[in-house]
Structure formats: C-alpha cells, structure tokens
Amino acid sequence: MSPFRSLRDYEIFIYTLSQRFPLIIHSTLIVARRGRRFAELAGDLAFPGGHRLVVYERLTWDTGPLTIEGYSYEVWCGNDKSYWYDSQPHPADSKLASTHPHHKHILPNIKHNRIPAPELSFTHPNIPFLIHEIDTTLLQD
C-alpha cells in the first residue's frame, strides 16, 4: 500500500530527500503533472565519487493512493553505467518470474543479464532502497 495519498505528499517526499539522506550532493528531481491523474518524476541524484542515480517514474493516482505505473533507475559512475532497474516485462525469462516485472540489469552484458529485484514495487517508494544500495555497495568501496 502506498504511503502517499496524493501527488502533493509524493512531491514533499521527493523534494526533501536530501534532508533525509545527507550523502546526496545534488538533486535535479522534478515531479511534473502531465494530466488530471498522471505525473512523471525525472532527474538525477548526485553522490560522492561521481556516482549518480538517474530516475524516471510514471505516477498515477486514479484508483486511489499514488502508485508507480512504470520506472527506470540507472546508476552511473562517471560515464559508465553500473547497473539499472526497470519494470519492462520479460515474461519469457523464467528466472524473473518471482518478482515480475521488477528486475535489475547487471554486468557483464548489462542489457541482457537480468536478475530479480524483490526490493522494488509499484506501491511504495523505491528511491530510499536505491540510495541505500548506492551507499552500501558503491560508496563503501
């Protein structure tokens, strides 16, 4: 269940991320309403060491609380893409069935090497998990 009852709730959450996560150096995240019950979140979060999280979410609240209809989250270090998550269905890939459609693309062969992503959801915010993952797997090296 989404903790956000409205787009305004989600905007407050997004625009105060750097207050809750001091490792964020800079944010260009913007929530843009695209219709009566539809909005998009897009932009980057910058972290130490040239790491950045590129975020895209398609948001809706037409059937109740705000939900994420689709997303793409890319993690970069400088000019190199480290990994990404997306919600593009791959029904023929049986190893992704446990978290369908949520999955992560990893090296090597990042486009075709996919693993399940049980931490991601359409009904709760994914960004805190992604920030924690960057902090524990990339910034602690």
Summarize the model shown.
With 141 residues, the protein is of the alpha+beta class.
Give me the count of strands: 8
Work out the strand percent. Answer: 35-45%
- Class computed from helices, strands and strand pairing: alpha+beta
- First and last CA, distance: 34 Å
Task: Give the overall silhouette.
Answer: globular
Give descriptors for this structure.
141 residues; alpha+beta; 17% helix
Tell me what the structure shows.
With 141 residues, this protein is α+β, with helices and mostly antiparallel strands. The chain has one domain (7-137). Helices cover 17% and strands 36% of the residues. It is built from three helices and eight strands, in the order ααββββββββα. The protein has helices spanning 7-15, 17-20, 127-137; strands spanning 26-27, 30-35, 38-46, 51-60, 67-77, 80-86, 103-105, 114-116. Strands 1, 2, 3, 4, 5, 6, 7 and 8 form an eight-stranded antiparallel β-sheet that branches. The N and C termini lie far apart (34 Å). The relative contact order is 0.17. The model has no long low-confidence stretch (mean pLDDT 92).
